[in-house]
Fold this sequence. Notes:
The chain is α/β, with parallel strands linked by helices. The protein folds into two domains: 4-176, Aminopeptidase (3-Layer(aba) Sandwich); 187-241, no CATH class. It is 46% helix and 14% strand. It has helices at residues 24-41, 55-65, 95-108, 132-135, 152-160, 162-176, 187-197, 204-210, 219-241; strands at residues 4-9, 45-48, 69-76, 86-89, 118-120, 141-148. Strands 2-1-3-6-4-5 form a six-stranded mixed β-sheet, sandwiched between helices. Helix 1 (24-41) links the parallel strand 1 and strand 2. Helix 3 (95-108) packs antiparallel against helix 6 and helix 7 (187-197) packs antiparallel against helix 8. The chain is elongated and about 80 Å long.
Amino acid sequence: xxxxxxxxxxxxxxxxxxxxxxxxxxxxxxxxxxxxxxxxxxxxxxxxxxxxxxxxxxxxxxxxxxxxxxxxxxxxxxxxxxxxxxxxxxxxxxxxxxxxxxxxxxxxxxxxxxxxxxxxxxxxxxxxxxxxxxxxxxxxxxxxxxxxxxxxxxxxxxxxxxxxxxxxxxxxxxxxxxxxxxxxxxxxxxxxxxxxxxxxxxxxxxxxxxxxxxxxxxxxxxxxxxxxxxxxxxxxxxxxxx
Length: 242
């Protein structure tokens, strides 16, 4: 069975953050876009909720998809003064807690304040009143509160770090599956690999190291590459003209 994740960014379109933060739903979906991209890049199957779903529909959809894990992405709010990240599992002692702790460790590596820890959600709203998304999902689940969107500095931090936050969430999830993070190739690296496979260049690392702004590629190497590419193009054009 393939390793799969159900990503559940906030559906709270009426939850508005400080200043130009906008809605929790919009910002968490932006972060989720990044997380999803990197999970797919590492070979995971990714399911995802839709903004127009109700929470009950999200849980039902997750259960129907039967993912390996369920991961919800939120930003927090209280009184405009509290800061920091926190993450919930339904109760300690299971796979949900393991997931929560691995993601929390990654998130804490980039947060500007001391975090608020990993917590149980089973009595979140009072004794016997759990976080619904954690108690009703069949798969091991965790719910992250990135930071407090009603606190000016936290809201600003989220807005300025969408990409970084999405990346660390993906890294934590990948650690849960014991999958090593692989850096994304730049457009240059992709191009170099293609040229190396086709035989145009014989020293790909040389080009990756030097063919970037501010560094110098040997004229001899550049000239050789140009000649090889030109020869290939000539062969293609000659074939088209026949």
